[in-house]
Amino acid sequence: MLTLPRFGLVLLTIALVVVLALVALAIATQIRARAIGAQSPKIGELTDVGGYRLNALHVPAGPEADLPPIVFIHGASGNLRDQAGAFLEPLRGRAELLFVDRPGHGYSERGGPANDTPEGQANAVARLMERKGIERAIIVGHSFGGAITASFGVLHPDKVQGLVFLAAATHPWPGGVDWYYHLASAPVIGPVFCHTVALHAGMMRIEAATDHVFAPNPRPQTYLENTGPALVLRPSAFGSNAKDVAGLHAYVTAFAPRYREIARPTVIITGDADEIVLEEIHSKGLARDIAGSELVWIEGLGHKPDYIVTEIVIAALEKIAGQEPDLQAMARLAEPRLAASRVQPAGAAPSLQAGQ
């Protein structure tokens, strides 16, 4: 039997080993975080929006532009490279484009507690538009960015030419989100987790996780290289992302009834094979709540319409601008291609389980 002094020495030794292990993990995290930043350096420009700075890639319209300005809002675990990778080249010259790193993501600063909610982030984007001289725009939101886009439509209708929702997460859903979002956003233990374990665990799963986000559609071969999803694993970004996701259910529960106030042209693009958000709740909920909106429902489409049916998203922008593409016909034409390219990636926990 251990005597009390001996037992105390054992506890002290264990505590010392744990502390040393955490310090080693923290040092390794900082080294890997710098490497991730070097692999995906900042693109765009930092702009003060009221005491903190947002990073955005602002691309001017060409002389023959045929579309109004467009603002792109990325989803959870993302950064502006995600939407720019899908739309920058296809739309270059056709419109003034603004790709935004949401507060605390990519290279944007987090700002105050107001930015823990989609409402606060919508207000931040509105201020950024003012700084960039954009009076009105089509607002495009993917996934978590859909909650921000819907909030923007309610809170800043004067700045909205139209809204496009891509596999949006916008309504209360049964269940919750993965446990690590709550852990990473908790006081005290959250920062410890973000600075020690999160990055290393995330890097082990990033291939499978991004496959899962695209499933059942194939992930583009250069997606990881071009869009820098590992940027979210850096400690500050991981904590910001966790706060966003952990608070989403409560936020949309309170705010979703206001979507009925939206009166701007709206297109909602979703698929019946989304493994991240439950389209029956979110996209159909938007179509129900926003009078005059058009729901484009595509069989075989997963969570990434921005990459998988880019041409339909661009046609939706054209429709809001006054052109007359047949989005429903385009959806039917895309479905055989999606069925033929269907893949079954290895299982991985999704980045946002809004309705699974």
Verbal overview:
- Mean pLDDT is 94; it is low at 348-356.
- The protein is α/β, with parallel strands linked by helices and 356 residues long.
- Helices cover 47% and strands 12% of the residues.
- The chain has an 8-stranded mixed beta sheet, with helices on both faces.
- β1 (45-48) and β2 form a beta hairpin.
- It is globular and about 80 Å long.
- It has one domain (45-185, 203-340): Alpha/Beta hydrolase fold, catalytic domain (Rossmann fold), CATH 3.40.50.
Quick tags:
Rossmann fold; disordered C terminus; 356 residues; alpha/beta
CATH architecture: 3-Layer(aba) Sandwich
Rg, rounded, reads 21 Å
**Assembly of the depicted chains:** single chain
Class in CATH? Alpha Beta
Q: What is the CATH superfamily?
A: Alpha/Beta hydrolase fold, catalytic domain
The counted number of beta strands is 8
Q: Give me the secondary-structure category.
A: alpha/beta
- The CATH topology is what? Rossmann fold
Q: Can you write the helix and strand succession as a string?
A: HEEEHEHEHEHHHHHHEHEHHH
Q: Can you tell me the number of structural domains?
A: 1
Show the helix and strand layout:
Blueprint lengths: L3 H36 L5 E4 L4 E7 L10 E4 L6 H12 L5 E4 L17 H15 L4 E6 L1 H12 L4 E7 L12 H7 L3 H8 L1 H17 L8 H5 L7 H12 L1 H8 L10 E6 L10 H8 L4 E5 L6 H4 L1 H11 L6 H14 L16
Parallel strand pairs: 3-4, 3-5, 5-6, 6-7, 7-8
Antiparallel strand pairs: 1-2, 2-4
Helix pairs in contact: 3-4, 5-6, 5-9, 6-9
